[in-house]
């Protein structure tokens, strides 16, 4: 068992059971018990902005994290007692990529690209410009057009594609090149002195692919879409990181591998010495039913 663990997890359809698949009844409570251990630091890594993260914590009874990486890796918040504090060092690190231009300036540079429909104001921030895109649009051609236009103005960006499955719409985020979920997790690892063996990431969607295919030990929950699973495996193999990607299958602790059940299954895959503690908690909860 490692002396400490930096557990980084996506929210929607990874920890939150808000997909179409069923959640194992005891999974979230087992997850909460696991992260309550003093050696575990919990980080929520999400496309949501902070008010929606707080709403998810309230509505789903989630444990409070130590940090939140929000807005697809463009904001980091540290929790101190009962308040959140912006990580100014992270903002300073990513700000140079946009050459002093604002989110509104970037939007103006992309004017006239017809497939892009700007998302609501509350889904934008200083270093995140988000669009809705119809699923029938050629994603690769669209992103190439956007990249060329921004590169002409020496704007260094990262374009992150994902799909809102319930709404049936594509989501496209324009971020500083140094931002994103992977870079933000690496920032926290460096800041806290965490090695790769002390870190685990959990995800399910397109905007998790950069981490799922990286050298950071990662878990793809069983409820992930087949398309995401195929892409994650292919990219992990291409990067030489196949051993750092675990695809949950179900069966551990009599659970189905979806959502938090998949997170726990993956943690045991990477850190087997946690297994007995989780199974003991599962037995205790079963006796309380």
Automatic annotation (TrEMBL):
The keyword Amino-acid biosynthesis does not apply. InterPro entries: HAD-like_sf (IPR036412), HAD-SF_hydro_IIB (IPR006379), HAD_sf (IPR023214), SPP-like_dom (IPR006380), Sucrose_Phosphatase (IPR051518). It is an enzyme of class 2 (transferase). GO terms for molecular function: alpha,alpha-trehalose-phosphate synthase (UDP-forming) activity; hydrolase activity. Its EC number is 2.4.1.15. Keywords: Glycosyltransferase, Hydrolase, Transferase. Residues 4-271 form the Sucrose phosphatase-like domain. NCBIfam families: HAD-SF-IIB. This is Alpha,alpha-trehalose-phosphate synthase [UDP-forming]. It comes from hydrothermal vent metagenome.
């Amino acid at each position: 068992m490692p002396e400490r663990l930096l557990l980084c997890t996506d929210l929607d359809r990874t920890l939150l059971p808000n997909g179409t698949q069923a959640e194992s009844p005891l999974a979230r409570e087992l997850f909460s018990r696991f992260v309550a251990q003093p050696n575990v630091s919990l980080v929520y890594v999400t496309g949501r902005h902070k008010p929606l993260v707080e709403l998810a914590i309230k509505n789903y009874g989630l444990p409070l994290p130590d940090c939140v990486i929000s807005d697809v890796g463009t904001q980091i918040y540290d929790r101190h007692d009962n308040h959140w504090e912006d990580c100014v060092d992270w903002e300073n690190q990513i700000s140079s990529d946009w050459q002093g231009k604002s989110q509104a300036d970037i939007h103006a540079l992309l004017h006239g690209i017809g497939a892009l429909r700007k998302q609501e104001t509350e889904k934008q921030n200083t270093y995140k410009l988000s669009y809705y895109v119809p699923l029938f649009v050629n994603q690769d051609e669209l992103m190439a057009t956007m990249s060329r236009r921004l590169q002409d103005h020496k704007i260094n960006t990262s374009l992150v594609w994902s799909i809102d499955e319930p709404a049936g719409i594509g989501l496209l985020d324009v971020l500083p090149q140094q931002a994103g979920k992977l870079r933000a997790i690496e920032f926290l690892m460096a800041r806290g002195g965490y090695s790769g063996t002390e870190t685990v990431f959990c995800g399910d969607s397109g905007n998790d692919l950069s981490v799922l295919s990286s050298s950071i030990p990662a878990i793809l929950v069983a409820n992930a879409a087949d398309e995401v699973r195929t892409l994650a495996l292919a990219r992990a193999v291409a990067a030489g990181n196949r051993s750092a990607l675990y695809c949950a299958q179900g069966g551990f602790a009599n659970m189905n591998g979806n959502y938090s059940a998949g997170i726990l299954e993956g943690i045991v895959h990477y850190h087997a010495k946690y297994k007995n503690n989780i199974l003991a908690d599962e037995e205790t909860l079963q006796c309380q039913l």
